[in-house]
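Session log. Operator J.P. requested a structure for one protein chain; no other inputs attached. Running the standard single-chain path with token output.
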Amino acid sequence: NNDSDGDTLFDGDEVNTYQTDPSKKDTDDDELDDNVELNTYQTDPLLSDSDSDGMPDGWEVSYQLDPLIDDSALDPDVDGKTNLEEYQLGSNPNVIDVTEEAGNDSIADAQNIDRYFSLGYSADVGDENSNTSETIPYVSITGTGDYSYDYFEFTVTAENSLAIFDIDYGYGTEEGSFDTYLRIYDESGNLL
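Structure written below.
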């Protein structure tokens, strides 16, 4: 009764009962260990996408979606992007992402992002030691990487406020990345 991969499933059961690989914790490479798929989520440890909706089981679980029903067309954050589109874009399906609007290339034309700050869970906010998405307000901005400066405005309601700016890669660019410079100005246009 060995457990070669340390997934709490005995090797004999993996081979004879579940047909999973006793040398891999995650037979289908969906970011969920075989024992978790079988005992917690009842997903198929041999299929990375148990409900065949185009999103891997592990990704769905990490964003509190249901890996057993096709929820690819749903839009829980009501940002106009389906869960499947959010997966394909690498964005959070539960948080409205700010996509820059054309014409926000000056302080005078800054795009207001007040309504986008969230305390909803996001796996993208924080680091390997802590996730601060539910304790510090954050906003996720998806840049286009169009070689221009983009300006965003927001309201600070109290001194010593904290906020996180999650600025994602250059959406829609071949390079998939861009340089980020974060400068804060006051309401008069003075650099702080």
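Operator note: Strands lie at 97-99, 111-112, 138-142, 152-153, 164-168.
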